[in-house]
Amino acid sequence: MARPKEFDENEALQKALEVFWRRGYERTSLADLLSAMGLSKSSFYETFGSKQALFREALARYQNDKLAQLRAHLDDGRPARQSIEALFRRIVDSACPTSNGRGCMSCNEAVEMAPHDPSVRRQIERFLNETEHILAEAVRRGQADGSISRRHDPVQLARFLTVCSYGLQVMARAKSEPDRLEDSLAVMMSALN
Question: Per residue in 94-103, pLDDT tens?
């Protein structure tokens, strides 16, 4: 009979997510994970299988949380344009010197892992597709409430906003000049006119 686990698997996964998010996959060692999670090697392998399997599970958790936050943010009762602008305003504001500097984990891994790891690439692609879907719903709502012009197809506009979001997040993580981000945000929002 297997011994019961002496640790909270959910809490251990969250700790691993934090390490991967801060350090990235390649710079995170097994020792880093074991230390953060408070696990022995045997418990680690028995529960999570491998560093790569744990990473994919941590990334999935991060993405699911972010998608839920995105839905809640865009369905906040305000006109859709205001909700979308507030979403991007948060990204621009994250470029301030006091932010944690981790950026978006999905964005980070799209650059670090997706080019050479097909499973991560598929996971990032699913996340992007769902992000586009949520943004397209917000655009349709904005077109219905009159806060967003009907001159663009909602899916095309959502794809544009997704690409802009990733670009803004990279620039914010790099602590880009505030004027660059503000100008970019202004042009992005003009696409909704």
Answer: 776 666 668 8
